[in-house]
Write a structure and sequence with these properties.
This protein is of the alpha+beta class. The chain contains six helices and eleven strands.
Amino acid sequence: MMAGRRDPRRTTGPWTRTRSRVGMLTEGLVLAVMVLAVTVILRPGADTAHAEAEPARAEAVADAGAERLEGVARVIDGDTLDVGGVRVRLHGIDAFERDQMCDRPQGPWACGAAATRALKSRAEGRRLACEVLDTDRYGRKVSRCEREGVDVAEALVAGGLALAYRRYSRDYVDEELAAEAGGAGAWNGSFDRPEQWRRAS
């Protein structure tokens, strides 16, 4: 190589340093634009807000191998409800049917409608946590359900608006005996057991 001639392959000098700075600034600008685009795309919009306003769907919750459901309840009758869209039959009780009438000293009364109203007052539109124990022949999840730790079926039996379903469980027998002794609800008169009423209907 002749002295005094510049090697065209040389990469040092002020021009190269300037070009490196420009390259870094360009890369930084591109990166900033990409981050901004991702932020705009992922920002919650009207659809997200609408979804959050909808009733909670049923969520399967792992609990030491037991199947659980959690969701907002919609009452069907005195012992049947939807929990986040999943049809649930309350375990261990048999409530008077929606159209069922019972007798008391003052005359007939709509004990079935009263049972439905009682469950609505405890569960309708509220978030329930249900332990699934079985699935019945209609595909309903037979469950023990609680609202804020309170068993929603227990109060129905204690109020004389549902009976302990002894064929399947003895969980609520004590509450039924107390309701009978106190003349609560349908125990203040006479009635057909819900399963008898269903067979006759």
